[in-house]
C-alpha cells in the first residue's frame, strides 16, 4: 500500500531527494513550497517521476494555508524541510525568524489539527558553536552556543518540538546535518564543494569560499534519514546528529580532480572555517536507524559528478550557481 507524505521545502535540495526516495518506493509525496520551478526534483527524479508528484504552492508563514494543505492530503507523516539558510537569515533576521521559527510552529499546528502523529524536521549542526579543533566528536547533548541567527532559530525549533511532545504527544525527530552535498545543493554557506563538482564537469574554474574540515553527508543518505525518521522510531522529541565523512575541503578537491582530471588546479580554496564543529558523533542515529545507508565520500562525489555529466549531456545542467564566465 502506498502512503502520502507531506514534504515542506521540497523544491529545495534535500527535499528533491526526499521526493525521489518516496516516489521510487511507491509512496505519494505532496510538495508544499513557495512555488516555482521544480528543477531540482526534475534533475534527480527525471520527467516521468516528476509527473507522480503533487504540488501545493504555499508559505509556511501562513498558518491557515499550512492547515488547509495538511488536512486536504491527510498524510501518514510530515517531513519539514522548508527554511532559510545561514546567508538569508543573516541578511534578513526578521524574515529568517518568521520562516524558520514561526513557520515550524505552523507546521506542528497543522499536523495537530489534521491528526498527523509524526514529524521529521530539519534542525542543523549549526545549533553547535565553534569548538577547539581537537578531533573530538560532538555528541547530541553537547552545549555550545551557536554563532549565527540560523543556529539560534534551529535551537528554538528543537525546543518547540520538545514542547509539542510534552504537551500534545506529537512525536518528532530533528536531524542535524552539517554539510550536505550532491545534485541540487546550489545555495547556502556550504554549497561550494558541490558547485565545484559542477564546475569540474564543465572544465570551469571555481573558488570554494571556506576552508578546513567539515562533516560531509551525501544527500541521498540525508533524504533516506528523513524518510526513515518520518516512518517510525522511538517516540518522543528525538534529536540526532548526522555524521557522514569528516575531511578537509582540500581532500574533497583532490577527489574531484581524480574524477575529473581537466579540473586539475582550477578549483581554489580560501576563506574562514565553518563555525561549526567539523566532526559530529552519529552513533545514536546509526543505532536507532541502522537501515539508513552511509555512502562514502568518494562514492558520493563520483555519483554527483556522473549525474552532473548526464544532465550536461542532456542539455539540462543548471549553471546559475556558477560565476559568470
Ligand atoms: N543543505 C545543508 O547542508 C543543510 C544542513 C543542515 C540543515 N539543513 C536544513 O535542511 C533543510 C533543507 O535544506 P536544503 O539544503 O534542501 O535547503 P534549500 O535552500 O535548497 O531549500 C529550502 C526550500 O525551502 C523553501 N522555502 C523557503 N521559505 C519557505 C516558506 N516560507 N514556505 C515554504 N517553503 C519555503 C524554499 O523555496 C526551498 O525550496 C533546511 O531547513 C536547512 O536549514 C540543510
Q: What does this entry look like structurally?
A:
With 325 residues, the chain is an alpha/beta fold. It has a domain at 4-180 and 218-243 and 276-294: 3-Layer(aba) Sandwich (Rossmann fold). Helix content is 43%, strand content 17%. The protein contains eleven helices and twelve strands. It has helices at 13-24, 39-50, 63-73, 86-91, 93-114, 149-168, 192-202, 219-231, 249-259, 283-288, 297-313; strands at 4-8, 28-33, 54-57, 77-80, 118-122, 171-176, 179-181, 206-208, 213-218, 237-241, 245-248, 267-269. The protein has a seven-stranded parallel β-sheet, sandwiched between helices. It has a three-stranded mixed β-sheet with strand order 7-9-11. Helix 1 runs parallel beside helix 2 (39-50), helix 7 (192-202) packs across helix 11 and helix 9 crosses helix 11. The protein is globular, with a radius of gyration of 19 Å. It starts with a strand and ends in a 12-residue tail after the last helix. The model has no long low-confidence stretch (mean pLDDT 97). Nicotinamide-adenine-dinucleotide is lined by residues 8-9, 11-15, 33-34, 59-61, 81-85, 99, 103, 122, 124, 177, 179-180, 185, 187-188, 190. Nicotinamide-adenine-dinucleotide (NAD) binds next to helix 1, helix 5 and strand 7.
Give the helix/strand layout.
Blueprint: E1 4-8, H1 13-24, E2 28-33, H2 39-50, E3 54-57, H3 63-73, E4 77-80, H4 86-91, H5 93-114, E5 118-122, H6 149-168, E6 171-176, E7 179-181, H7 192-202, E8 206-208, E9 213-218, H8 219-231, E10 237-241, E11 245-248, H9 249-259, E12 267-269, H10 283-288, H11 297-313
Parallel strand pairs: 1-2, 1-4, 2-3, 4-5, 5-6, 6-10, 7-9, 8-12
Antiparallel strand pairs: 9-11
Helix pairs in contact: 1-2, 1-8, 3-5, 5-6, 7-9, 7-11, 9-11
The chain binds nicotinamide-adenine-dinucleotide.
Amino acid at each position: 500500500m502506498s502512503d502520502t507524505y507531506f514534504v515542506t521545502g521540497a523544491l529545495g535540495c534535500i527535499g528533491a531527494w526526499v521526493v525521489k526516495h518516496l516516489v521510487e518506493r511507491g509512496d505519494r509525496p505532496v510538495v508544499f513550497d513557495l512555488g516555482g520551478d521544480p528543477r531540482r526534483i526534475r534533475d534527480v527524479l527525471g520527467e516521468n517521476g516528476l509527473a507522480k508528484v503533487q504540488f501545493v504552492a504555499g508559505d509556511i508563514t501562513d498558518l491557515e494555508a499550512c492547515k488547509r494543505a495538511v488536512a486536504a492530503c491527510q498524510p501518514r507523516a510530515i517531513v519539514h524541510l522548508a527554511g532559510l539558510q545561514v546567508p538569508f537569515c543573516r541578511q534578513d533576521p526578521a524574515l529568517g525568524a518568521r520562516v524558520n521559527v514561526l513557520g515550524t510552529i505552523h507546521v506542528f499546528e497543522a499536523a495537530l489539527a489534521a491528526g498527523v502523529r509524526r514529524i521529521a524536521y530539519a534542525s542543523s549542526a549549526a545549533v553547535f558553536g565553534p569548538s577547539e579543533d581537537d578531533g573530538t566528536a560532538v555528541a547530541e547533548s553537547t552545549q555550545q552556543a551557536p554563532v549565527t541567527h540560523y543556529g539560534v532559530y534551529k535551537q528554538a525549533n528543537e525546543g518547540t518540538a520538545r514542547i509539542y511532545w510534552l504537551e500534545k504527544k506529537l512525536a518528532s525527530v530533528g536531524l542535524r546535518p552539517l554539510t550536505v552535498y550532491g545534485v541540487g545543493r546550489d545555495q547556502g554557506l556550504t554549497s561550494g564543494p558541490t558547485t565545484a563538482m559542477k564546475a569540474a564537469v564543465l572544465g570551469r574554474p571555481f573558488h570554494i569560499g571556506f576552508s578546513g574540515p567539515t562533516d560531509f553527508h551525501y544527500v541521498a543518505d540525508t533524504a533516506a534519514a528523513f524518510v526513515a525518521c518520518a516512518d517510525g522510531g522511538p517516540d518522543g522529541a528525538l534529536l540526532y546528529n548526522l555524521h557522514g565523512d569528516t575531511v578537509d575541503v582540500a581532500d574533497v578537491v583532490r577527489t574531484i580532480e581524480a574524477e575529473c582530471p581537466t579540473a586539475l588546479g582550477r578549483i581554489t580554496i580560501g576563506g574562514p572555517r565553518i563555525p561549526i564543529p567539523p566532526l559530529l558523533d552519529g552513533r545514536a542515529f546509526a543505532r536507532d536507524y541502522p537501515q539508513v545507508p552511509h555512502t562514502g565520500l568518494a562514492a558520493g562525489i563520483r555519483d554527483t559528478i556522473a549525474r552532473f555529466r548526464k544532465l550536461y549531456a542532456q542539455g539540462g545542467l543548471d549553471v546559475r550557481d556558477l560565476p559568470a564566465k
